[in-house]
Amino acid sequence: MSKTIFSGIQPTGELHLGNYFGAIKNWLELQKNNNCYFCIVDLHAITIDYDPKILQEKIIDIATTYLAAGINPDKSIIFVQSTVKEHTELAWILNTITPLSELLRMTQYKEKKEQHQQNLNIGLLDYPVLQAADILLYKTNIVPVGRDQKQHIELARTIAKKFNNKFGQAFTIPEHSIPKIGAKIMSLKNPNKKMSKSLGSQSYIALSDSPEIIKKKIMSAVTDSDKEIIFDPEKKPAISNLISLYHLATELTLQQIQDKFKNTKNYSEFKQDLAEKIIELLKPLQKKKKELMQNKEKIKQILDQGAKKAHEQAQKTMQQVKKEMGL
User: Fold this and answer.
1) pLDDT tens digits, one per residue of 148-192
2) Exposed end of the chain (fewer CB within 10 Å): N or C?
């Protein structure tokens, strides 16, 4: 039975393998039999310092990556968050039933609070309420997320239940979906931290990286003290992260990968092979994206059409919410 899916990525920089394996690759399967909304969440992106002069370029870049990866605008709704006004309208309403204590205990807020001392704004704290609005507007059944977003989805569920109990059954209670492998790709330089642009360009593989850059980054990725290629995240986090990447790039099982390299004397051979697999994986995406970028007007048209479709459902939800609340 078809379900409604909602997911989104911030336009805060170039997308990397963590974004691809943790989100976009899963979307390709989900769009086959479900009603999917894939958003570019620009309102979330402005909670940290950014350059307004290039924000639109980043939005187009993300949209083009979605399409190049295989997200089909005839099957899925692709749109920009800020072009559907109901996101912020519902967020304000949800603010009135969300306890401040719930937001203060959010792990991501605690982390961002430390990272953005010079711009510690209300948006950083209120981020999960806007995220709840994103999800609840579309009667979402499933939200595919990484492990670091699980707490936010739990809050969205709590908010939805509270509203339904207090005012009326306006919202579907969403479920999160976390992939077993790929939910949290770790940094190439620090396997104890999530792959992120904030850790520097050498810590991640950008989807736009050239073959030469990919090889250089993989070959310089940190490894564990011994030379055994064994998947053991607790004892060998560095090589386990690279094995995870190999699995996701090739779909070989973890055991098949370990068997393939069991007689390897050092990490170099494994890394060279991993780099080649990632290059092959990204080649068609990079080629398609280059073609799509030749017609940015077409990309904008797809986003406009997506916004109109999203607005239709968002408007229906808001009408129901207001009716239930007596507004």
Assistant:
1) 788 999 999 999 999 999 999 999 999 988 876 666 788 898 888
2) N
Q: Is 176 helix (H, G, I), strand (E, B) or coil?
A: strand
- Give the homologous superfamily in CATH for domain 197-290: Tyrosyl-Transfer RNA Synthetase (1.10.240.10)
* Ranges of CATH 1.10.240.10 domains, the chain: 197-290
323 included as an active-site residue: no
Helix, strand, or coil here: 274?
helix
Q: What is the pLDDT of residues 61-88, one digit of tens each?
A: 999 999 999 999 999 999 999 999 999 9
Q: Which of 189, 197, 288, 296 is catalytic?
A: 197
Instruction: Please give the CATH number for the structural domain made up of 4-177+296-325.
Output: 3.40.50.620
Check 58, 139, 184, 194 and give the catalytic one: 194
Per the annotation, the verdict on 53 as an active-site residue is: no
Q: Is 271 a catalytic residue?
A: no
**Residues 174, 143 contacting (CB under 8 angstroms):** yes
Phi, psi angles (nearest 5°) of residue 59: -65, -45
Q: Which of 58, 112, 217, 277 is catalytic?
A: 112
Q: How far apart are CA 250 and CA 277, in angstroms?
A: 7
